[in-house]
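Re: the request from the purification team.
They wanted to know what the chain is likely to look like in 3D before they choose a buffer screen. I agreed to run a prediction and write the result into the notebook, where they can find it.
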Amino acid sequence: MQREMGRPSLAEALLPETLGQNERLERIAAAMDWERLGQVVAGIYASGEGRPSYPPLLMVKVLLLEQWYNLSDVQMEEALGDRLSFRRFVGLGLQDDTPDHSTISRFRKELAERGLSERLFAELQTQLEERGLLVKRGTLLDATLVEAQVRRPSPDAGLGTQSEKDPDADWTRSGSTRRAHFGYKLHVGMDWGSGLVRRAELTPAKVAESAVADRLVCGDELAVYGDRAYESKRRRAWLKSQGIDDCIMHRSHKNQSGLPTWQQERNAAIRPVRALVEKVFGTLKRSYGYWRVRYRGLERNAVEMWLKLLAYNQRKVVALTA
């Protein structure tokens, strides 16, 4: 049983039409086939008995608002109570009760247990494909580190010590300074030309970029771009066999004094294209607060990742179709 939401009231009829308008949210609302996204989560709360629940699509929109505005569940509950634009976007009338923070948290848990967050992302990919928004000129591969939500284990315990509160988080070293990092790693494959994210995976920080790379290749792109971390003879041969241009940078190997001139020039040509994927990470960390995960455990944080990328791609669609 689900609540009947969004019924017009006399109070709303008396409000000025411009009150509570949010152009960004209205454009996002108009850009998506929400009914198809709703079908992905339709099985949640599908029982014909018990207390009426909030419509699953309404709850998906609530979770997307959290990503766009970098809000916690508690902050989202408060915002739904006093922001008319948020209520309109999710489909709540003035007279409707709003989901509290525990309801939002339980719904996110349902997405995790049913594996539906990735399916929501996949449905959006289908819509992007149908609308011809994916350029497929090339897939840009890269990864970025995301801090754990829990405190780092004590340095005295030694690098590699896991956290009892989040055993999925792990250590790695990054950059030329080999700075220690504790948490997770976000791997993405971005469509060159549109800037849309096509593939993604969240892993503990220690997982190497190359271990995930093949799962980020879609197979229908013209080329694959990546930095030195993605180089392997097997991958180069596989890309060639698939008719995909190999645009992965070269690196020096053992007993090699340096790269030949032609490899240096090739790297220089690839570098500016490959670097475009950094815009995805910059937006996620700067606007979506994704420099640190919000939850504990890989499963819950993977749901957050898919929701953030779903939200990112939806805003990107609005920019591409403006």
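For the purification team: The chain has a mean pLDDT of 91.
Please add any questions underneath this entry.
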